[in-house]
Design brief:
- This protein is mainly α and 298 residues long.
- 84% of the residues lie in helices and 0% in strands.
- The protein is built from 13 helices and no strands.
- α1 runs parallel beside α12 (245-256) and α4 (71-94) packs antiparallel against α5 (98-120).
């Protein structure tokens, strides 16, 4: 279990580090930074698949596509959804929206709970109902105070549940799903580079950022690998609880390194949403403690 905990915390820490990478890569254009991240990530993912002796899962996926051609459409949809999320992950810190994006990650556990109830008919616990109600009040306050709710917050909070539902429907999990998601975006980024840039521009980028460009991709691939390993090693309740580490780190990066602050008219709404997350985290902690006690008794 300790190995799983360390993997989860390491993955969250690496995602927090990646959040600051776009700033280190200035003055490269935002789209270019996004493309470099994908182009550098996929080769590392392939290396990890080979090292972990998981290539059979890739060949099995190709066999499924051959039997079920429509599966390709689902894989493309999944890839586009993840690509959109990764684009926002690059766009937000470069454009002063790091806190809004991190708020989306704070809301994500709540929208996942609601998704489970709506799509899979899962029942909400008492604390989950309270957390959802508090978050709903926070969203209502945000609408009332500002007249709008940040689009990037909504895309993250609502887009990821749709992505995970599609992934579950397609029955692609772990590294094979990551490979397929990155593959289609990789092809798109490669075409973009071939159309928009020549070899001289690409070489100049590497000369200017010889460490940051490769590290952006390598760090992304390792973070995803650790994330999936942690999910495999940890009980679901503990894994979900540790998932709150990432948005906390993203908020700290936004405040400490990107120098963003919560506007005064949004303190109440942010506070209510963070409170709802704390309620969910408390529930996860209570469930985990009870589970550990049962294991000790039996």
């Amino acid at each position: 279990m300790l190995k799983g905990i360390l993997c989860s915390i390491s993955a969250s820490s690496l995602f927090g580090l990646i959040y600051y990478f776009p700033v280190l890569l200035r003055p490269l254009p935002m789209v270019e930074i996004f493309c470099w991240r994908i182009l550098m990530s996929l080769p590392t993912i392939i290396i990890l698949i080979i090292v972990d002796k998981q290539w059979s899962t890739i060949t099995a996926l190709l066999a499924r596509i051959k039997r079920q051609p429509l599966l390709l459409l689902g894989l493309l949809t999944s890839s586009l959804l993840l690509g959109l999320q990764m684009f926002i992950f690059v766009w937000a810190p470069l454009n002063g929206h790091g806190l809004s994006a991190s708020l989306g990650y704070f809301l994500l556990p709540l929208t996942m709970v609601l998704c489970g109830q709506i799509v899979y008919k899962e029942r909400l616990t008492f604390l989950q109902k309270i957390a959802v109600a508090v978050a709903a009040v926070g969203v209502a306050v945000e609408f009332y105070m500002t007249g709008v709710f940040s689009w990037e917050t909504l895309v993250i909070a609502l887009g990821y549940p749709i992505y995970f539902v599609i992934r579950r429907k397609l029955q692609i999990e772990g590294i094979v799903g990551t490979f397929s998601d990155f593959l289609f975006v990789f092809i798109g980024c490669l075409i973009y580079f071939m159309i928009s840039y020549d070899a001289t521009k690409i070489v100049n980028d590497f000369i200017e950022f010889p460490i940051y460009i490769p590290m952006l991709g390598i760090t992304t691939a390792i973070a995803f690998a650790m994330y999936f390993l942690a999910r495999r090693l940890l009980p679901l309740s503990l894994f979900g609880l540790l998932g709150y580490v990432e948005p906390v780190l993203l908020t700290l990066v936004s405040m400490l390194f990107l120098h963003e602050t919560v506007p005064p008219n949004q303190i109440i709404s942010y506070g209510l949403i963070w409170l709802s997350v704390c309620i969910l985290a408390a529930e996860g902690g209570i469930f985990l403690i009870k589970s550990m006690k049962r294991k000790i008794i039996y």
